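Quick entry between incubations.
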Amino acid sequence: MSKWWVKLEIFLKDGILDPQGKAINSALHSLGFEEVEEVRMGKILRLKIEGETEEDIRDKVRKMSEIFLANPVTENFEIRVEKICE
Amino acid sequence: MSKWWVKLEIFLKDGILDPQGKAINSALHSLGFEEVEEVRMGKILRLKIEGETEEDIRDKVRKMSEIFLANPVTENFEIRVEKICE
Amino acid sequence: MRIGIVVFPGTNCDYDTFWALKLVGLDPVFLWHKDTNLINVSAVILPGGFSYGDYLRAGAIARFSPLIDKIFDFAEKGGLVLGICNGFQILLEMGLLPGAMLPNNTNTFICKQVYLKVENNDTPFLRKYSIGEILKMPIAHKEGRYYVSDSELVKLENKKQVVLRYVGPNGEIDSKFNPNGSVNNIAGVVNEKRNVMGLMPHPERAVEKLLGSDSGIRLFLSFLN
Amino acid sequence: MGIYGLKDEEINHVRRLLEREPNDVEWSVISVIWSEHCSYKHSRKYLKNFLTKAKWVEQGPGENAGVIELGNGYKLVFKVESHNHPSAVEPFQGSATGVGGIVRDILALGARPIALLDSLRFGPQDNLKNRYLFNGVVSGISFYGNCIGVPVVGGEIIFEDCYSSNPLVNVMCVGIVPPGGKIYKGRAEGKGNLILLVGARTGRDGIHGASFASEKLEEDIHSQRPSVQVGDPFMGKLLIEACLEAGSLEGVIGIQDLGAAGLVSALSESASRGGSGVVVYLDKVPQREENMTSEEILISESQERMILIVEPEKIDRIKNVFKKWDLEAEVIGEVIDEEKFIAYFKGEKVVDLPIKLLTKDSLEFDPPFKIRERIPMPILSKNEEKIEGFIKKLIEDIKIKEYIYQQYDYSVQTNTVLPPGRGDSAVLRIKDTKMAIALTIDGNGRYCFLDPKMGAMNAVSEACRNILCVGGRPLAITDGLNFGDPDEPEVFYQFREVVSGINISSRVLEIPVVSGNVSFYNGQGDNRIFPTPIIGMVGILENIDYLITPDFKEEENLIYLLGDLDWLSIEGSEYIKYSYNIIAGNPPYVNLLWEKRLKSFMEDIRKEKIILSAHDISDGGLLNSLLEMSFWGEKGIDITLPEVEDYERLLFGEGSGLIIVEISEKNKEYFVKKVEEYKLKAFLLGKVVRGNFKIKPYIDYPLKKIIERGD
Ligand SMILES: Nc1ncnc2c1ncn2[C@@H]1O[C@H](COP(=O)(O)OP(=O)(O)O)[C@@H](O)[C@H]1O
Ligand SMILES: [Mg+2]
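Done. Structure below.
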């Protein structure tokens, strides 16, 4: 068994209003960062997890996301297996 | 000028208590995902932004993070410039 | 009529709901989330609060409590299940009600009195109200923006599953009376069988004039046959 | 500064007392517990003067919170605490942990927390940093308070330049113990009783937080990261339920929260109160991080932890309660007879210090003081335009308060009869009784800056009037004292004067001080804050029927001013600050004998229910009070004031001892007689009307604009 770092990004589906992102966007504008066109805010989880292969890890995290970590009605998720340790 | 997608990950510094991550970790365990050892929860921002070079973009986002998007006292951030469009 | 009030770690409207049920003459009992049976209650209420701190998403973790399976079966068999605020969020996460909750479009927690219009009373919970009646109740939530996809929304409206809507004091349906950005000003919905209802406002905080409103009394009285 | 911020004389004092050189861990322990924050070394001597006793006071200062009897067997537990420094560094977590901290003080007495009030001070909001601090603090309080289900029912908010780098966040918590319920003390006593540490694991959070709160904020706040603690309100809520459940069982001897200076402070204080000692085994402390040192475990300020002193025979039963709530509970040591603090780590004795050295033996400081020159009032140029602008500002203020309290769940627990933004005090009924309590929190830094003693007297008397205005009888005070660096002679002068002002008012009005908090080092030199005492006060409505609300009730009713228009003064007022940018002159003069008669009068007349609405005069003057009463009641007024040159004084001047009341025509004679009986005076201002908001001959403002808040 090896250990893996996984990052799971969870964003609201496109088309669903993200008021936090909007608020940050306008705050950035008022700070003078006019070049920012759009901001979406999401959640990110970093998991330390044990498993055999990258595929294995991916499958597990996908499963966790589907049943628990992301809400399928409103959210999309993306998995990145970052690096192996040990 | 080109357009870029930037992802900004913001996590609590290691060692700082992350109650959400902890609660998610123990929920995963009770769901049978025993192989998860640690969970940290962070924020992620996806910004659409205009700029010349990747370096340019990075500098700008770093500046935004330092003065506004992240709290340097408690948080670390990481910038990924994802792709160019247009 | 014994009514079960489910207590999760982090629930904080359990006592308030208990008090309200007593006040209107019902017989409430607490059910602990780790229990494995419903001790013959006639109805179940999932009260408000912050089960598991609302960490990750409101209601997301509570849904895996041992008692939840029993509540699921109970509802499937036609038992009455009412979710208030966090309870509503849990029912959505369980899939007993359609849709999902998002953070308020104000980006803040909101606590205030709101007006609600009874859109449909064809559910045991609202049979003591007439259609079009205006109720006054407090809301207190951070994730109360009800969301369903456009196609689901059409279905929901057609089947008259939308039972309560945020309105103005005179029943005006207008986005300016929508406190949190819910689609179609929706404040409460029922399932197709109409035995499961969820609402974001707090009827248990609206059973005494002294505290500002007694609009919620009849909702609880509806548990009496 | 010597070892960990101890002064040389303190270091020598330790060596003298101990007759040996403490080891490194011991130095560390001594220095955190001798910090200002824990030892009150600059303030102890002065706080001793307070009136702390009354028939209804069960517990004055000295425990985790004060306790008063309400009647019918109910007891009220309350205290205010500041979290200024943490909030300046990390506003969200700073204020959230502030809420958690004060809640656990109340919990330590075995009381269920039923209400929170927040007193906030920030710099002007035209500045990004100040807006960030403001929004962070409000959302931190909202985050923690809402999650644990304790309503935030009142508070106050003031913006002023002096708070730009040093915001003030004072939170008051109120708890209740029902008849038959036990009041616990933070006491470790009874040889062999076990020390049970419950709740969160111990990490490296807030190492040296207590010392941090006792220093000036450094410019480079990044280096102060270790002092930042993160709150876990979910665990806070579990702790409330589990501790109350455990406290209802037999076998718990004492309860103590872990606050500043962590285990060291909690254990030595409870041992001191119990006249015992403690021995702890630090390896048994559940740890969140690896390789923690004994020093770190001892002084960590990780949140959401409590200590219970438990009889050994009952330990399993008590532990099971915590297990039920998914909380860790570990026996980490026991009570011993010898009055010592002993700690072992990895088999080695790392601390062996007398309890007395840690608690009572710290040096007291009485630094020199220097009287501050008063700021004379300049002559103002009249400016008509300013009036309209000021009215708009007053309406704007109502909106800012609403923006704040709407983020707080003020209706949970279903007791809130008078919610925030609706009256001078919040009113909560007590279920199963006819009783209700009134809660308020007030302070005026601007007044105290101009005259610290008179300013403090204003704060106490205003809090008192706030209770009276809702039909309550004031019972007791908790005070939050916020100041700059006590080693600056002018600051120490302010401190002494403020304490004396609180003291004299509290004695004359017979409202004892039962708990409080002192926060020094809020800025320095030109950057220091105004001396800002915050007065939290609780009162009782023996019968909820005595409730008076401030909204005008009915057209044709009469509006009286209790007091005299001559007392209104524009010096030091909100108006001259806003309109002329001047902070000068004297604050309102407080006639305590008048206030006392006013108190007796209101306490008496509320029982006859002829006062239909009441509101005192404070910031913004007569006009502001009338405006609020109109706004809340959605009624106009028709009032006539004398035609004078200095009408700004009449409209916007501030004064102490003034209450506006509404009575019906038919009670007029009775009211006037009663006023005379109490040797008070009242001035008939005018009437409640259907039409405009009219103050002749100066103002005629559309009611609609007020009700719609200028939208
Ligand atoms: N920070 C706050 N949190 C909660 N309530 C607040 C806050 N600021 C003001 N309020 C509420 O708004 C009302 C008016 O506040 P304030 O003007 O400070 O009262 P007063 O003039 O009587 O001192 C009160 O009910 C008070 O509790
Ligand atoms: Mg007042």
